[in-house]
Design goal:
This protein is of the alpha/beta class. 22% of the residues lie in helices and 22% in strands. It folds into 2 domains: 32-64, no CATH class; 67-264, Putative cyclase (Glucose Oxidase, domain 1, 3-Layer(bba) Sandwich), CATH 3.50.30. The longest helix has 12 residues, at 209-220.
Length: 267
């Protein structure tokens, strides 16, 4: 990497697009809850280390969760239509107790891509979209015009609804009152040949979130990120940024917790 490129990166602003993980956080009602407990406390010294480090103690936690809690990315094996995954792969033929033999999280690439923020509420003169509002393809087209931005093939599309503010403050509102994309706008995004979708709610779409998942994961083979935090990016009007997403490399998993970041020029 050239010194000039390093200087540009160091001079840029980094935006954390991830939500915090905590006990009681909003998760899908059919998913297991996120649960973290302290497994070992600093209330005793480790005798095994006494000779090399007198008085040594340590602490450690135990986390029990699905890979679809909070800010996460879906693998292609996460959802199926009539038992089939992307490109007609039969889910039953690759599913094992230890994980999926194809389309697992380890196959999700590290994304370092140009990202375009669709600040749909701002385009409409709103701070947040109305409850259960379905974002149309026209909404997305008009948002790009309003922002003065072009969506290019291979870009990451980031959709802001405004509902990420409720993730830590109002669990029920976050899970049930959200706005999202529709089947129509999902197909529009696929036709634009995006490489990855990200949105600031958990269910992604209204009124048929599962069908919309299938459009991306099964039909198009496009991974999706959910429960992003896009408020700071929108506040600073950073409509174009460099996004970096590094999923955990868990063999055969159906998704991964992530902490994506966006890098943009200082304004």
């Amino acid at each position: 990497m050239s010194e000039q490129l390093i200087e540009h990166v160091l001079a840029a602003r980094v935006y954390d697009l991830g939500q915090p993980y905590f006990n009681g956080m909003p998760v899908h009602p059919e998913d297991p809850p996120f649960n973290m407990v302290i497994y070992r406390y600093h209330d005793y010294t480790r005798q095994i280390f006494e000779k090399v480090a007198p008085g040594f103690s340590d602490s450690m936690e135990l986390v029990i969760t699905s890979m679809h809690s909070g800010t996460h990315i879906d693998a292609r094996c996460h959802m199926a239509r009539n038992g089939e995954l992307h490109q007609g792969v039969k889910a039953s033929e690759i599913a094992f107790h230890s994980g999926y033999k194809k389309y697992g999280t380890e196959e999700i690439p590290i994304y370092v891509k140009r990202a375009v923020l669709f600040d749909v509420p701002a385009y409409k003169g709103l701070d947040i979209l109305p409850s259960r509002y379905g974002i149309t393809a026209k909404d997305l087209e008009e948002t790009l015009k309003w922002e003065g931005v072009e969506l290019k093939p291979g870009d990451v599309a980031l959709i802001r609804t405004g509902y990420s503010r409720y993730f830590t403050t109002d669990k029920e509102k976050y899970l049930h009152d959200f706005a999202g994309i529709t089947e129509e706008s999902a197909r529009w995004l696929v036709q634009k040949k995006i490489s990855l979708l990200g949105i600031d709610n958990l269910a992604m779409a209204v009124p048929k979130p599962f069908e919309t998942h299938l459009i991306f994961l099964v039909d198009a083979g496009i991974h999706v990120m959910k429960s992003l935090y896009l408020e700071e990016l929108a506040r600073d009007k950073q409509y174009v940024s460099l996004i970096i997403v590094t999923p955990l490399k868990i063999r055969g998993a159906t998704g991964s917790l992530i902490r994506p970041i966006a890098i943009a020029a200082q304004k």
